[in-house]
């Protein structure tokens, strides 16, 4: 079945190519400095079968991927991790999307043959080592665990991944670390202690009314609401880490997360949140259930009335894809996620 | 035949000098190590700075009446500004940093759009080259919906003022001033690093960890999430108070405009109750501004808000009431009694 959004997807790939920085990386916005996260996401998006990952790859896309990979390879630190930008000497959460991307190359034979390098095995081994040994939050003693239980109603025995070494675990880095680790060898990794523990972490951190936030479902006895970004990454990670034994009562947490995302996707005034939430729902729902959402993601929404004091303005807050540039909000990061959403299959999981 | 050189003997005086020098050096070294992370040399420089402050003029803090968000706020804000000795902003790039934190129905969590609008108009009137509103919110990566739900986004569009998401801005590394944590460098958004003036615009709120969240605590929102994560917990790990005073010293120059029209009492910064206080508080010494706000809230800054006491001790500004000159509305006429936030110790015992 042909992709309904083939042309839009191609324009998105073209935007990624043209918005690449001269150093080979991508920024959060066009013209912004290169960061590890959007660079990894842009590459993962370009790896799509009709992007730069299938047959007859256009030369400019091939070169863009090569230059992006060269930039990313050069940013790995001697400890195996990545900072967030070139000049950041401390390894941190940038390691998760970087290793997700490198692992993906070797999961897909075409990608390995086009873009693999001899030293990548070592790059991945060291990166994985950093994730497992440095990225994971340190365990706490029983006293701290008991205090945290009382104040936040969370179980510190479940270890998530942190933004920086030695710090507490949080939902988004835990989700990204899961994606990085599991994509290498899903069947094996899903059974690993770390992955099982991280999934327990995500269940434990779920907000009581559905969805996830940074990782504090409760604050001194009060419910802290979910946010779209954390919920989407938790759902994507959950989708990738799914094992047969996960079906059962735990799926209620996931269903609540999907319900939460459902309540956001059409209401949001943000293109980025529209793209993110559509991405997550795309992985959990049948194609006909997300047709309309994909349409809205690509074409944007209707005018909405915004009020401030006695003034009102009518405005399209969600614009969708820019028909000229192919971008969403002029951002390589958002456009990369939109491209993942529009791709036929979740090749990246 | 070689003659063995005669051994030089130390005279008694030389020996005494040597011992004395060694003793002084040893004492300084011991004092330096014993007083770390601050260190004796830092302590001496702080003592000198504090001494200098005690001879300086009083810090001026302006309090102006502002009965609600629905009235003209530019006029009281302008009068507050003109009561102070604030350097001209003409031709400067000014960044307004409100507190935009969470949308929790029934709770007024964020700096009100009308106060931000008044500050924009004032800066434009004073000839600022560019006025930017910027925030790096701690609990979510995409701030867009929060901007619209707080009406700040709509106001900015009406005023055609640029908003910068500090969490995803380009970042630059600057040397950390103060040296109170182990962070030798601090990563800052380029928008903050290149600003000529940063105006911290918090809402007057209690805070369950810090006692109160005011203009100095509001600076947490300038560090980029893309480096420090969400909810920027690394700053908590190095000590809330320590991180606040270090950020204040690292990021300058600043002015504070505190939205105290409707404050938040009890379980702040998110779940507290509205507390109409009907004031705007403005000043260039953020320690003095925050100490004054704490007094307006009925708190004792030296006991209830440790970061204010720490900043005062470090000589970053003044906390003592007799070192602060209140201009505009007298403090006593606006003082309230905010219900205090739950304390960690009490919470742990409650369960």
Keywords for this structure?
heterodimer; A: 349 residues; mainly alpha; two-stranded antiparallel sheet; 15 helices; 4% strand; B: alpha/beta; ten-stranded mixed beta sheet; 38% helix
Explain this structure.
The complex is a heterodimer of chains A (349) and B (351). Chain A has 15 helices and four strands. With 349 residues, chain A is mainly α. In chain A, the strands form two sheets. In chain A, strands 1-2 form a two-stranded antiparallel ribbon. In chain A, a hairpin with a 2-residue loop joins strand 1 and strand 2. By secondary structure, chain B is an alpha/beta fold. In chain B, the strands form two sheets. In chain B, strands 1, 2, 3, 4, 7, 8, 9, 10, 11 and 12 form a ten-stranded mixed beta sheet that branches. A two-stranded antiparallel ribbon of chain B has the order 5-6. In chain B, a hairpin with a 7-residue loop joins strand 10 and strand 11. The longest helix of chain B is centred in the N-terminal third of the chain and has 23 residues. The mean pLDDT of chain B is 92. Chains A and B meet through helix 7, helix 11, helix 13, strand 3 and strand 4 of A and helix 5, helix 6, helix 8, helix 9 and helix 15 of B.
How are the elements arranged and paired?
The complex is a heterodimer of chains A (349) and B (351).
Chain A: H1 6-18, H2 36-46, H3 59-74, H4 95-107, H5 109-115, H6 120-135, H7 142-152, H8 171-182, H9 186-189, H10 193-204, E1 218-219, E2 222-223, H11 228-241, H12 251-265, H13 271-284, H14 287-299, E3 304-308, E4 311-315, H15 332-342
Antiparallel strand pairs in A: 1-2, 3-4
Chain B: H1 12-34, H2 40-55, E1 59-65, H3 74-83, E2 93-98, H4 113-125, E3 130-135, H5 144-149, H6 152-159, E4 162-165, E5 171-175, E6 185-189, H7 190-193, E7 197-201, E8 203-207, E9 211-213, H8 225-228, H9 233-237, H10 240-250, E10 254-265, E11 273-283, H11 286-296, H12 301-304, H13 306-313, E12 324-328, H14 331-334, H15 344-350
Parallel strand pairs in B: 1-12, 2-3, 2-7, 3-4, 7-10, 8-10
Antiparallel strand pairs in B: 1-11, 5-6, 8-9, 10-11
Helix pairs in contact in B: 3-4, 4-6, 10-13
């Amino acid at each position: 079945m042909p992709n309904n959004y083939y042309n839009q997807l191609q324009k998105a790939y073209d935007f990624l190519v043209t918005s690449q920085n001269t150093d080979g990386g991508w920024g959060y916005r066009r013209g912004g400095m290169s960061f590890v996260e959007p660079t990894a996401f842009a590459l993962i998006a370009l790896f799509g079968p009709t992007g730069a990952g299938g047959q007859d790859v256009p030369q400019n896309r091939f070169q863009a991927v090569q230059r992006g990979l060269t930039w990313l390879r050069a940013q790995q630190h001697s400890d195996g991790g990545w900072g967030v930008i070139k000049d950041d000497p401390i390894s941190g959460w940038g390691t998760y999307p970087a290793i997700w991307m490198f692992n993906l190359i070797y999961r897909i034979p075409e990608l390995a043959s086009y873009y693999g390098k001899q030293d990548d095995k070592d790059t991945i081994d060291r990166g994985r080592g950093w994730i497992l040994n440095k990225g994971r939050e340190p365990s706490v003693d029983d006293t701290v665990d008991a205090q945290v239980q009382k104040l936040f109603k969370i179980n510190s025995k479940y270890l998530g991944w942190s933004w920086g070494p030695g710090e507490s675990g949080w939902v988004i880095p835990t989700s990204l670390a899961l994606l990085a680790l599991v994509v290498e060898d899903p069947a094996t990794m899903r059974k690993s202690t770390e992955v099982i523990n991280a999934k327990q972490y995500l269940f434990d951190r779920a907000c009581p009314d559905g969805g996830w936030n940074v990782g504090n479902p409760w604050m001194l006895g009060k419910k802290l609401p979910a946010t779209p970004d954390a919920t989407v990454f938790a759902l994507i990670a959950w989708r990738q880490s799914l094992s047969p034994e996960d079906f059962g009562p735990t799926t209620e947490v996931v269903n609540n997360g999907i319900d939460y995302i459902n309540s956001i996707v059409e209401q949001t005034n943000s293109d980025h949140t529209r793209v993110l939430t559509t991405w997550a729902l795309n992985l959990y729902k049948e194609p006909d259930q997300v047709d309309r959402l994909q349409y809205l993601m690509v074409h944007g929404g209707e005018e909405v009335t915004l009020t401030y004091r006695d003034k009102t303005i009518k405005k399209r807050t969600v614009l969708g894809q820019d028909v000229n540039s192919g971008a969403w909000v002029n951002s390589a990061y958002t456009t990369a996620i939109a491209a993942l959403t529009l791709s036929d299959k979740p090749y990246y999981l | 035949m070689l003659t063995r050189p005669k051994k030089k003997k130390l005279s008694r005086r030389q020996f005494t000098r040597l011992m004395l020098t060694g003793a002084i050096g040893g004492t300084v070294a011991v004092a330096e190590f014993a007083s770390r992370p601050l260190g004796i040399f830092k302590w001496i420089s702080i003592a000198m700075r504090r001494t200098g402050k005690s001879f300086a003029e009083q810090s001026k803090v302006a309090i102006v009446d502002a009965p609600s968000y629905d009235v003209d706020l530019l006029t009281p804000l302008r009068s507050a500004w003109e009561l102070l000795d604030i350097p001209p902003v003409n031709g400067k790039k000014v960044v307004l940093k409100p507190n935009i934190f969470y949308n929790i129905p029934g709770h007024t969590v964020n700096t009100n759009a009308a106060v931000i609008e008044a500050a924009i108009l004032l800066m434009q009137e004073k000839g600022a080259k560019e006025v930017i509103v910027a925030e790096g919110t701690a609990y979510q990566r995409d701030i867009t919906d929060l901007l619209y739900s707080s009406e700040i986004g709509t106001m900015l569009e009406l005023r055609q003022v640029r908003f910068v998401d500090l969490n995803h801005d380009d970042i630059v590394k600057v040397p950390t001033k103060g040296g109170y944590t182990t962070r030798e460098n601090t990563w800052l958004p380029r928008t903050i690093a290149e600003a000529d003036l940063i105006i911290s615009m918090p809402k007057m709120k209690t805070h369950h960890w810090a006692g109160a969240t005011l203009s100095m605590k509001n600076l947490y929102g300038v560090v980029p999430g893309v480096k420090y994560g969400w909810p920027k917990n690394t700053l908590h790990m190095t000590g809330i108070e320590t991180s606040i005073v270090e950020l204040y010293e690292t990021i300058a120059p600043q002015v504070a405009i505190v939205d105290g029209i409707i404050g938040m009492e009890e379980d702040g910064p998110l779940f507290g109750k509205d507390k109409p206080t009907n004031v705007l508080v403005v000043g260039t010494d953020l320690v003095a501004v925050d100490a004054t706000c704490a007094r307006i809230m009925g708190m004792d800054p030296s006991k209830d808000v440790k970061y204010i006491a720490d900043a005062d001790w470090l000589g970053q500004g003044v906390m003592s009431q007799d070192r602060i000159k209140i201009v505009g509305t007298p403090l006593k006429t606006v003082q309230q009694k905010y219900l205090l936030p739950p304390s960690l110790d009490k919470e742990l015992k409650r369960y």
